[in-house]
Amino acid sequence: MAVPKERVVIHQTQIHGSIAPDHDAILTPEALAFLGQLHRRFDARRRQLLKQRQERQARYDAGALPDFRADTGSIRESDWQVAPIPAALQDRRVEITGPVERKMIINALNSGAKVFMADFEDSSAPSLANQLDGQINLRDAVNGSIAYRSPEGKQYRVGANPAVLVVRPRGWHLPERHLTVDGEVMAGALVDFGLFAFHNAHALHARDQGPYFYLPKLEAMEEAQLWDEVMSVTEGELNLPLGTMKATVLIETLPAVFQMHEILHALRNRVVGLNCGRWDYIFSYLKTLRGHRDRLLPERGQVLMTVPFLKAYSELLIQTCHRRGAFAMGGMAAQIPIRGDEAANEAAMTKVRADKLREVQAGHDGTWVAHPALVPVAQEIFDRYMPSPNQLSVKRTDVAVTRNQLIAPCAGTISRAGFDNNVEVALRYTAAWLDGQGCVPIHHLMEDAATAEIARSQLWQWLHHGEVEFTDHAPIDFALFDHALATHTHRLRDSDLPGAKRADEAAALLATLTHAERLGDFLTLPAYEKLA
Ligand SMILES: CC(=O)SCCNC(=O)CCNC(=O)[C@H](O)C(C)(C)COP(=O)(O)OP(=O)(O)OC[C@H]1O[C@@H](n2cnc3c(N)ncnc32)[C@H](O)[C@@H]1OP(=O)(O)O
Ligand SMILES: O=CC(=O)O
Ligand SMILES: [Mg+2]
């Protein structure tokens, strides 16, 4: 018998792969239907915007350099302000960030930081299990039921005055291959955002806490507009007042620094601030300028926030934000506490303090830390130099940043140790990521997707541009890379370090990416194909 056409269900959201019984509570039929709506409404536009990224990059590869837009001058020049900032976000002096693991969420909420940025992105290896566990953990954090008992029997619960929750979904480029709508793979960004909003928006709104989001890796005003539409439609679907959801945007790509007024304008009814995501920004400088031999970067340890192109970026961000009534958030120093070596620990803390002092004195309204022990370190500096909840009144009218300053070449050198460290970090991070861990300590530094991107992009750049030398004038060549990779792979394989059992796959991936004619757009895209 023929089925009436309107009753044939041809479009649906499907789950691919097995999910744990707990995950049913997240992937409910209603939540899946909501994700389906987001996908149908927004995914074509997302794909078009990703194509525009490729078109822009093709122009940079052909010799063009990024610049301010000619078609948006009126946005930059006219006077307008972003919407008022909610009370819960008025004071963001210290924000702790971390993966969406249960114990870490509780520790972060209890850390004393004003805000906890719960991260589905740079510090997450986005296996379906990790992402869905993260959604369960955040749902329980929002509804107040979250608790954890460690294997040693230690009990964890959220105490009084927890940090305000801000969630970072994946960037626009990453797929979530376990969910399809009408046969098309969903965007990780829409899955992370959609599930968190669907399950938590009402509870957070009821206590005047959002939901709040950090938006990563945007490259253009239109990408911010897309987020604004996604949030507006979600507010409509969930019967929330328009503008309830607030956004802080990471300015962590070189193209985006030329559109900061435009990005704030696109999100002006809900944006709270911009953030200096320094690690991805350095990666983006490398990637955007991959065709420009005159803009190679020295080893990572020399690319500090005080070098001219990064100083220009952070000062222009502060000036732009404060002109529009938005917060200018600082970023992450990579140092973490060093246990068992007081002198080394003090040296690391001195570096963190210097970074936070630079930020607060430049006019930032708050900063990021990677570890609970760093909360008091950053807070002490911000309390001393920022007695008010923020520094919106610091207009930085003294700053006059030019296009050339933002893309200025960076002086410095490449040592054998710097080269070897990039091989080790890229390998060990990729292996840990493939094994499900998105943030790892390596030689007492926090390493995540953004820092690993820097490591592998620098290797590509130094090896492919030819005639790049170490400080001792020895040439940098593929034989050295292959040898270093084999040595570190052997060491990792024989260790009990995170990712040891994925060492060979990580090495193969890194070798392919490093030998490839073109610098690949993202390490995490080919790695995702291999993620369990
Ligand atoms: C470029 C960017 O995007 S930056 C943002 C993304 N990066 C991050 O968010 C970094 C998050 N930080 C981390 O993941 C961790 O701090 C690491 C991996 C760097 C180091 O972790 P560990 O080696 O486990 O640290 P350590 O052993 O010192 O941890 C001590 C305690 O602090 C907790 N802890 C460490 N970092 C965090 C954190 N960021 N949030 C909450 N708790 C934390 C640990 O869970 C542990 O708790 P316990 O004592 O109750 O067992
Ligand atoms: O997300 C932050 C960064 O530095 O990258
Ligand atoms: Mg980043």
Automatic annotation (TrEMBL):
Domain Malate synthase N-terminal residues, every copy: 14-69
SUPFAM superfamilies xref list: Malate synthase G
Matching InterPro entries: Malate_synth_C_sf, Malate_synth_sf, Malate_synthA, Malate_synthase_TIM, MS_C, MS_N, MS_N_TIM-barrel_dom
Catalytic residues (positions): R168, D448
BP terms from Gene Ontology: glyoxylate cycle; tricarboxylic acid cycle
Domain of life: Bacteria
MF-aspect GO terms: malate synthase activity
Cellular component, GO annotation: cytoplasm
Similarity comment: Belongs to the malate synthase family.
Name the record gives this protein: malate synthase
